[in-house]
């Protein structure tokens, strides 16, 4: 037990430092002065050197050899620590530090290039980031697939070949559904001017209705919405476009899904390797089920329609049914985060194929914009109009999150499975949602999934919650049923 206790104490300190590093990242994207970027880069690099030294400390290996788990949670902690130690000891300290140093600089360069529509200004930074991540992937893979090695950071126990096969099964049904919808009458969009202050008031109401604990979190504005932190300090961000309120409102609900997962993990696991979400795919299952199956449901849209009228007065849509149709409108567009449920996964498939080619060396940064534009037109049927709507729209590659994108689609798949079981267990769900009451649904998710953190692996976590092994079937059935009814197909 002495080895286990020493190991756990050391791991808790390391996790506390990692939380500080995450807070620096949150600060950079929300309130940090623009002129502080170069200094922040050095701060992040210095902190990463400390973290890498702790994560590769030889004492960890000795403790892991000697430690005996006292219980199920202890066994899971040892499992995660062994996995992390095996990975981290393969990454040179120089590489870890350089990645931390370049990330804030590359992100700022992306933000400026996106605003100016200047891809070439971002390319030197993207080239550096790809080279560093390739090196990291190769170091971890040890002769295997470097993309799989990077993807394992976000979705353990899943290979890119398995993801590709899943996408191949989904694509024909998604394309067929989209073509049927685009051939039908399109409902009117919600139009008008929706002041930032009003949108943020409703965002805070939504966060509270979905169970976000503001005593342990806060909401701010960012270029790209995100959630940050775990345990007792979990922060969310959103963004506002005064003529597109759904962007803000559903971004908020989405990030609350992530935050609720982190806030809902058993407090006994705090600052341990199992005191956080088990994978980004499982994480995304929470944000997507909050945003879509619950937040975009006909029942909840009825409540949100009333809240919007209360804040902004009469709306451009005639009634709650029109509001529901507008919130689920399928139409042409470029932005992944604004995409409807039918087309969202097609956006992910594009990014997955491109980033896998980048890490494997089959595509270079200088050719990425052309590859993106060609693929986008082939997949969606119209050309990209400007870089901010194309290759520059997402923050992920600027901060080196290669292997992250497929977890968005996996999250949708997991959410489909969870929702199928949740609806069976909560037969009066619609009545509750129509009153703006999500507590039964969010309570079910906490009891079935969130409180366990990373106690089990990703797929086992979903299987335990649902009662069956996850696959894409429930998601596709849900999409076809929902949009067939909505568009009268």
Automatic annotation (TrEMBL):
The keyword Kinase does not apply. The active site is at residue 255. Binds 1 zinc ion per subunit. GO terms for biological process: proteolysis. SUPFAM superfamilies: Metalloproteases ('zincins'), catalytic domain. Keywords: Carboxypeptidase, Hydrolase, Metal-binding, Metalloprotease, Protease, Zinc. It catalyses: Release of a C-terminal amino acid with broad specificity, except for -Pro. Its EC number is 3.4.17.19. Signal peptide: none annotated. It is an enzyme of class 3 (hydrolase). It comes from the Bacteria. Its cofactor is Zn(2+). GO terms for molecular function: metal ion binding; metallocarboxypeptidase activity. Zn(2+) binds at residues 254, 258, 284. Belongs to the peptidase M32 family. Broad specificity carboxypetidase that releases amino acids sequentially from the C-terminus, including neutral, aromatic, polar and basic residues. PANTHER family: CARBOXYPEPTIDASE 1, METAL-DEPENDENT CARBOXYPEPTIDASE. This is Metal-dependent carboxypeptidase. It comes from Roseinatronobacter bogoriensis subsp. barguzinensis.
């Amino acid at each position: 037990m002495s080895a286990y206790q020493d190991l756990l104490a050391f791991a808790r300190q390391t996790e506390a430092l990692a939380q500080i590093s995450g807070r620096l990242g949150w600060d950079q994207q929300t309130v940090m002065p623009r002129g502080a970027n170069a200094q922040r880069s050095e701060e992040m690099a210095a902190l990463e050197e400390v973290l890498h030294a702790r994560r590769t400390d030889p004492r960890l290996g000795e403790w892991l050899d000697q430690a005996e788990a006292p219980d199920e949670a202890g066994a899971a902690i040892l499992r995660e620590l062994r996995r992390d130690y095996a990975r981290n000891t393969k990454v040179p300290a120089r590489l870890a530090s350089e990645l931390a140093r370049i990330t804030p600089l590359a992100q700022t360069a992306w933000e400026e290039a996106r605003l100016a529509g200047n891809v070439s200004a971002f390319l030197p930074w993207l080239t550096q980031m790809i080279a560093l991540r390739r090196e990291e992937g190769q170091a971890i893979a040890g002769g295997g697939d470097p993309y799989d090695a990077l993807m394992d950071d976000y979705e353990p126990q899943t290979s890119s070949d398995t993801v590709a096969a899943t996408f191949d099964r989904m694509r024909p049904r998604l394309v067929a559904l989209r073509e049927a919808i685009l051939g039908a009458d399109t409902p009117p969009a919600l139009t008008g001017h929706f002041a930032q202050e009003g949108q943020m008031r409703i965002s805070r109401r939504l966060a509270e209705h979905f169970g976000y604990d503001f005593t342990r979190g806060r909401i701010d504005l960012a270029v790209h919405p995100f959630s940050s932190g775990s345990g007792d300090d979990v922060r969310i961000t959103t963004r506002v476009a005064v003529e597109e309120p759904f962007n803000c409102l559903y971004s908020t609900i989405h990030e609350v899904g992530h935050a609720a997962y982190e806030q809902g993990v058993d407090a006994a696991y705090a600052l341990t390797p199992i005191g956080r979400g088990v994978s980004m795919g499982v994480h995304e299952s929470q944000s997507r089920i909050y945003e879509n199956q619950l937040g975009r449901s006909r029942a909840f849209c009825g409540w949100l329609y009333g809240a919007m009228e209360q804040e902004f007065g009469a709306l451009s849509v005639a009634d709650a049914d029109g509001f529901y149709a507008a919130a689920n409108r399928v139409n042409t567009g470029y932005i992944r985060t604004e995409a409807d449920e039918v087309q969202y996964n097609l956006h992910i498939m594009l990014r997955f194929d491109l980033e896998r080619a980048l890490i494997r060396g089959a595509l270079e940064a200088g050719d990425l914009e052309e590859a993106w534009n060609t693929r986008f037109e082939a997949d969606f049927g119209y050309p990209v109009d400007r870089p901010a709507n194309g290759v520059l729209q997402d923050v992920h590659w600027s901060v080196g999150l290669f292997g992250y994108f497929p977890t968005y689609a996996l999250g949708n798949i997991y959410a489909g499975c969870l929702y199928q079981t949740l609806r069976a267990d909560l037969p009066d769900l619609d009545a509750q949602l129509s009153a703006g009451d999500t507590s039964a649904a969010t309570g079910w998710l906490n009891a079935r999934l969130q409180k366990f953190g990373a106690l089990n692996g990703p797929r086992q976590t979903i299987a335990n919650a649902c009662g069956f092994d996850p696959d894409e079937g429930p998601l596709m059935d849900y999409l076809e049923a929902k949009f067939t009814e909505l568009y009268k197909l």
